[in-house]
Specification:
Muramoyl-pentapeptide Carboxypeptidase, domain 1, Muramoyl-pentapeptide Carboxypeptidase, domain 2, four-stranded antiparallel sheet, binds zinc ion
Amino acid sequence: MKKIAMLGITMIIVLLAVFYIYSKIQIDNYEHISIVEKTSANTENESFVYTFPILDIVTINSWRQNGGFYRDLTLGSTGTDVFVLEKYLMAIGTNLSKADNYFGTETQQVISDYQKQNLILPSNGEFSGITKSKIYQDLLSSYCPNNEFAEENDYILYPIDRTNNIQQDYVPPKLTVLGSSVNTSGIICLRGDAAQAYTSMYNSMKEDGLDMKVTSGYRRYELQDSLYDYERQSLYNYPSVAMPGHSEHQLGVAVDLAPQSLGYEPTTKSMKFTKEYQWLSDNAHLYGFVLSYPEGLEYITGYTYEPWHWRYVGIDAATNIYNSKITPVEYLKSLKLFPNLGS
Ligand SMILES: [Zn+2]
């Protein structure tokens, strides 16, 4: 009788153990499945729902070049930074009725409500301290979003041009904000590998006694769209601006550079005659960068000569392009890495 009871208890323990292990596997499976579902949802439909305030390119450039939110804002403040803050507050769904460059009582009330919803923030209706850094970080991540689902090497050798485009919601992997150590004009980011390569190239150029500024890097689709719209009104720049979805800037691999010897003037063809340009022509490939739109080859590249626009393709490809003297886009197409592209 005692033996039967012992056997019974042992069986119950074994059954409980089996049930426990089984339920654990189920939970693990469930968690695994839910991660997979999350990934596919993010790469297909509702990918990258960022709170992106709709701002025209002139406003956003002026805001970035002034150093973003460089000062505290309070009742009575006016300026572009107030406007950008108000646009941001509207984009995240607060009930601010208008963006009017003026930090009035309505803006103050909305800030105060925003602070109450974020318990870590002090509820003082002011745009300062951690309230300012939180909104700044949010805004920054909408310009340099973190795409944790992108493949490490995706699209680095993609021959984007007037014919071949990239989907609207494409965001490169590991976008990195370039630090002030590389002399940027405002908030600029590149994909991680390109940012690292750019930093070493810049440091090496500095060691040779030359200097330059990065005036543009990654541009999300919406910014390219705004830039295209803006430049379309100007006959002079129109031929050199890429349509949204067709820009190397959306790949996060391209930088626009401005040399010190021209007072850091951006996007000027005179860059051709500078020693900084000469240095880049001789050395950029050693760091994986190439000149995307060389002189006299518009009929191949589709773009007029842009001595300021350099693209990261990695050291191997850049060295091959340097040695073969063909345009980057021709070289990238010849690799046939993307079978469904137009030629
Ligand atoms: Zn460019």
